[in-house]
Amino acid sequence: MKKTAKWMAATLAAAVIIGGGTALDRSNHTMAAPSGQNECVSGGTGKAPPPPSGHDGQRNPDHPRPPKQSGAGAGGQAAAPASGNLTTVTTTKDGTVSVTVSGGYETDPQDHGRPVVLIAAALGVPTEVFREAFSGVTPAELSSGGPTAEEAQSNKAALLKVLAPYGITNDRLDEVSDYYRYNGKQSQTWKIVPATAAAIVDNGVVTGISIMNPGSGYSSAPTITIKSPNGTITAKATVSYSEDFAKNGSLSSIKLK
């Protein structure tokens, strides 16, 4: 009986990535994507590159990980988050010029709301590799209450079968899954730290944008809107990705169009 209990506990602790825009947690919840979820952005649909030859699942300095994809393109708008306003507005001291940072949580349609670009970057693998790994997962419906213990164990095994050759351990998969887990059923988003930016003004003319806080958790480039007495203009934001949660999906630059 004790062995059975231990096996069940280990199985229920498995972390997978949830469909429906949610990262699976270690409490054995794997849900299917709700209809109408995020339309998105991201890498191509090409074949996943092979893992380094001779890799046994442990990180080996002689076999570095494949290069990570970066950047994000334009895509459909995700459902508005219910967990708080992610838009920031920064105004100059005289109140004449404001910079608004909004959006940035779009995802690729093929990912059904999951922030795959962030999850893959945090794991240190190309986006296509994680998509390949997730293709072996069988999500449960939102109304089902989650997968059975056997289904959760099978899903975890399917993920690690593809990810382990890239040096991804069970513990790291759990850590990343827990960090990007959110309730897709309630239209929540994963963890996002909103970025802030301020206008650089010279003689009443906006000449540039300064990033005050690069934020984190952006799965796509947010919209940058600058309003001044001379009218409204936009700027282009570039998002960078990292294995560091605090830097993953952060703004690396903002340039006036």
Q: Would you mind describing this structure in some detail?
A:
With 257 residues, the chain is an alpha+beta fold. It has two domains: 2-34 and 109-185, no CATH class; 88-107 and 191-256, no CATH class. The chain has five helices and seven strands. The protein has helices at 2-12, 116-123, 127-134, 149-163, 170-179; strands spanning 88-91, 98-102, 196-202, 205-213, 223-228, 231-240, 250-256. The protein has a five-stranded antiparallel sheet with strand order 1-2-5-6-7, with no helix packed on it. α2 crosses α3 and α3 (127-134) runs antiparallel to α4 (149-163). The protein is elongated.
Task: Describe the secondary-structure layout.
Blueprint: H1 2-12, E1 88-91, E2 98-102, H2 116-123, H3 127-134, H4 149-163, H5 170-179, E3 196-202, E4 205-213, E5 223-228, E6 231-240, E7 250-256
Antiparallel strand pairs: 1-2, 2-5, 3-4, 5-6, 6-7
Q: Largest sheet, order of strands side by side?
A: 1-2-5-6-7
Number of helices: 5
Average per-residue pLDDT, rounded, comes to: 75
Strand content: 15-25%
Instruction: Tell me roughly what share of residues is in helical segments.
Output: 10-25%
SS elements, strand count? 7
Low-confidence stretches: 1-46, 53-83
User: What structural class do helix, strand and pairing data support?
Assistant: alpha+beta
Q: Tell me, what's the shape?
A: elongated
Q: What characterizes the major β-sheet?
A: 5 strands, antiparallel
Give the ordered list of helices and strands: HEEHHHHEEEEE
Give the tally of structural domains.
Answer: 2
What Rg, in angstroms, do the CA atoms define? 20 Å
> CA-to-CA gap between the ends?
66 Å
